[in-house]
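agent> fetching stored inputs for the pyridoxal-5'-phosphate docking request
agent> found them:
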Amino acid sequence: MAKADASKLDWNNLGFAYMDLPFRFLATWKDGKWSDGELTEDNTLHISEASTILHYGQGAFEGLKAYRTPEDKIQLFRPDQNAKRFHNSCERLLMPAFPEDKFVEAVKKVVKANADFVPPYGTGGTLYIRPLMIGVGDQIGVSPAPEYLFTVFAQPVGAYFKGGMTPMNFTTSQYDRAAHKGTGEAKVGGNYAASLLPHQNASQKGFADCVYLDPVEHRKIEEAGAANFFGITKDDVFVTPKSPSILPSVTKYSLLWLAEHRLGLGTEQGDVYIDQLDRFKEAGACGTAAVIAPIGGIEHNGDLHVFYSETEVGPVTQKLYDELTGIQFGTVEAPENWVQQVD
Ligand code: PLP
Ligand code: COI
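agent> prediction call returned; pasting tokens
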């Protein structure tokens, strides 16, 4: 694949696709310690055929974004939260912690080195950053790998869901994404491998993605394949599911705070029963890649439950989106420590 050329990109129509940018960060764990790590130009990894990532899925990743402000500065949104979640994911798979401050430092190095690829302010584009740790080395037994790689690469992206901030319909899945005491809370590859077939089924039926129900009884909403769920009740409470098998979304926790402190809504993390959707006047899916994807309706057992509208964004969802993206792009005052400059 040819290296990406920033001068040839159509910033207004980026989509969500891999590009081979000039630089990525790579560090190795060997003999019980991490190397300092460095920026490299090669986008390929040369690893043992016996690497635990290949057979047993011993790997964790993150997703965060860099934003260009109207003043042409570049900033990150809550990278410390991604560092912390990455730490938890690695711990769950018995991988060595990568120090959280070094994680943020590596992210900043990669953004700086690829600064030409941070889309201009006003295009809606951002630089999506993908930190990743994998178990490598010569070992066939089911036990933690003898060596690890930590890498951070990036690519400019637009909307994750086609249509971005226009309502889309979702359908419930018969499958589970993760078990309650499984790895749902960790950002690990196996959860996403498990989601490929349900996503394909949903997409073949014309839905943006599926909504998973709780793996115990299939009665409560968990989350979508790549985003958490929220609903706005008729009496203005921002409600989002609480479950041990969903990914603790940085965006979701940010919206919970903004809903309460900036929009004056009530907030609740609790059960969201699939047969009680008419408590909500609006609903959405939220995440780093998805930002806020307004949910037009959810299909369940052949019935489509429409929230606000299948074509128009509800006013509360719009306000949440404006507040969140305003903070991310630096046009709305950020709560303390939510943004970090990359300079
Ligand atoms: N849920 C899943 C399964 C995800 O992959 C993501 C994306 O990271 C999210 C939720 C949203 O999390 P965040 O807001 O931290 O990006
Ligand atoms: C993210 O929002 O960062 C995600 O990880 C979603 C998806 C691209 C896996």
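agent> quick read of the result: The helical segments are 52-56, 79-92, 100-113, 189-204, 250-261, 315-328.
agent> awaiting further instructions
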